Amino acid sequence: MLSMMRCSYLFVFVMLFSLSNCKSKKDAMANDGGQPELIFGSSGGFAGKTEKFKLLPDGQIFEKSMSSDTYQPVGSFEKDIAQQFFDNYTTLGFDELVLDDPGNMTYFIIIKQGDRKKKLAWGGMNKSMPEQLDIYYRNFMKLKKRYMNPTK
Known about the structure:
The protein is an alpha+beta fold.
């Protein structure tokens, strides 16, 4: 009887320990508003498709497809690479840049922190886009492909 009771306690302990170490996808993507987010994406074109990729400072990459309301994890950068993207956003002056020129095919970068949000959008023919912005965007898109999970 005593060994059966110990076995029951052990089972309950193992179950509680296992449950406490589980994280849902929502927990993994939770952002307390304190850490910034960079969102790279595009929309429009013939199919009217929108794609968005969110980068967090710890390197996690998430994708939001047209068919989903939530971001799904798709891979991760090393933390220093992710931090370089956040640092370069400011160093290259994008935090001071005003660019709202959507076109048939629009490319965009959004930076969010807490309730603050800034969007740079280009693709129209009305404004010239800084070359550094194009390079920054393309670098993210190329690196993202390299670091995405193989099943994606």
